[in-house]
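Re: the 313-residue chain
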Amino acid sequence: MALTYNTLNSVTREEVIRDVTDNIFNATPVLKWLRSNQVTGKSGTKLQVPVSYARNTNAGSYSGADNFLANSIETATKAEFNWKDYYVSVVFTGDEKDQNKGKNAVVDVIDHKLENARMTMTYQLTTGLFSAGTGNSNKDLTGLLAAVDDGTGTATYGGIERLTDATWWKAKKTALSDYISLAAMQSMYGDLTDGEIRPDMIVTTQDVWDDLWEIITPIQRSDSEKMSANYGFRAITFNGTPVVVDAQCTAGYMYFLNSKFLKLYPMSGYENVKWTGWKEPVAQDVGVGQFLWKGQLACSNCRYQGRIDTITT
C-alpha cells in the first residue's frame, strides 16, 4: 500500500490509543490507585488546593437562650502548585515506512512503538511520583518525597512553610535504621489514624516487601491471597490496608498514604494521556507523534501521610 502519514493515523486506531493510555495508569499499583481517585476539571495558571488547618471555635454546648458564638475565624488557606508536563515522542522513520509494506506489517511496527511509549510514560510518571519535584530544573512532578516530609527535606510545600509557620503541615517521618517490623509499622499506622481516617495504601520496595512477607504471610496468608486477587497486584494486608511494591519507590522507604487527602490532579483536558496524532516535520523524513500528560500530585492534609525510611534489608 502507498503509505502516507494520513494512513499512519488511520491504522493507529482510536481503540489502540485508548488501550495504551489506559494501561499507562494500570501498570503500577500507585498509578492505578491515584487514577481511581483523581480530581478532574482543574485549570488556571497554578493548581490551588484548599487546606483546612484549624478547628471552628464557633461551637460548643448550650442551654436555653444562651448566645451562640459567631466570630470571624480563619480556618483554611490554599496550597499552590505549579502544573507539571510530561511527554513521550514516537518516531516512525521514512526507512521504516518503506521497509514495511502492507497494512499488517505497519500495524506490527506501530504496536511495538506504542507499547514502548506506554512503558516509557509509565516510568516517567512513576519516577516523578516518588520524587521531590526538583529534578529537570523543577519540571518533575512534586511527588511523595516532598508531600510526605516533616520539613527537614522539603521545608516549603505548596507554598506553605512547614518548620515554623505551619507545623500542622508536616507529615510523619521516622528513620528506622533497622529491619522492618510489625511494631514499627503499627506505630506509624497508629500515628496516622484518627477515628475513621487511616492509611488506605502502603507502598514500599521489593526488598522491604519481601522481608515483610516473611513476617506477615504465615499469619495473614488467606487475606494476602484475597487482596492479590482483588487488587490486581501482589499485596500483603496490614490492618486491612494493602502493602504493595512499586519499582520506583526509594530504596529503604515505606509510605503510608491516605487517598482522602492525597490526589492526582490532571489538568482539564488531560484526564487521560493525550495522543497528538502523527505529524510530518518539514525538514525530516519521519512521522512523529507525542503522548502528553499535564497535571500534578498534591496533598491537602500532610499530617495524615507518613513514611518510614532508612529501612535495612
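DSSP finds nine helices and 14 strands in the chain.
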